[in-house]
Amino acid sequence: xxxxxxxxxxxxxxxxxxxxxxxxxxxxxxxxxxxxxxxxxxxxxxxxxxxxxxxxxxxxxxxxxxxxxxxxxxxxxxxxxxxxxxxxxxxxxxxxxxxxxxxxxxxxxxxxxxxxxxxxxxxxxxxxxxxxxxxxxxxxxxxxxxxxxxxxxxxxxxxxxxxxxxxxxxxxxxxxxxxxxx
Length: 182
Fold this sequence. Notes:
Blueprint: H1 2-31, E1 44-45, E2 66-71, H2 78-93, E3 101-107, H3 114-119, E4 122-125, H4 128-131, E5 139-142, E6 148-152, H5 158-178
Parallel strand pairs: 2-3, 3-4
Antiparallel strand pairs: 1-6, 2-5, 5-6
């Protein structure tokens, strides 16, 4: 009888271990941050939710189109010119979604004024409250409702710029695929 009691206890312990061990291991992995979450976006989500209207701006494409914007810095040298070129190329690369997006150049009081005449893109004037959220030499995605969705930080090299624009294109395609707005 003592041997059957021991076997029963061993079976109970084995059963508890089989079901409890995965939960304990999962808790350990999550608490030690050994797991990378399933985030697929390459840009930074803008939180809390901000709209152009709450920032005191008039959205020229309100209810119509998504905007892919680039905030022009004080002096626009080679890398800045390259970013504007990639802005245009990203718009072309959208393919069937191209009609839903308009590439814009964002200009504030500190932006290089010479850029505006040469580029052939729509220009949107912004204010200081916008530049508190999106900084110079950064890309931003704005939805048709005027909400700032994602920003892409400034990069320092051509290789990072290419990688950033691939991520931007990927994120924008996902947003457009999932969105019925605009």
